[in-house]
Amino acid sequence: MEARLGFPIKSPIRYHRPMKIVTCHEDAFPALWKRLWVRQPSRPPMYTSLAYAFYRQRPADEGATLVDHSFVVVDGDKPVAGMQAATVAVGGRLDLRAYEVPLMVMEDPDVIDRRNYRRHFLRHFETILPAGRGSVFSRDPLENGQLSFFTSYLLQNGGVCTPTFLQVLDLTVTEEELHRGIRKSYRSLVNWGERNLEIEILDSASQVEAGMAGFRTLHKEVAGRETRSPTSWQWQVEMIRAGEAFAVLARLEGRLVTAGFFMHTPSCCLYGSSASIRELDKPLSHATLWTAILHARSLRCSSFEMGERLYPGQGTPSPKELGISLFKGGFGGATRVALNIVWDRSKTE
Question: Considering the domain 19-129, what is its CATH architecture?
Answer without folding.
Answer: 3-Layer(aba) Sandwich (3.40)
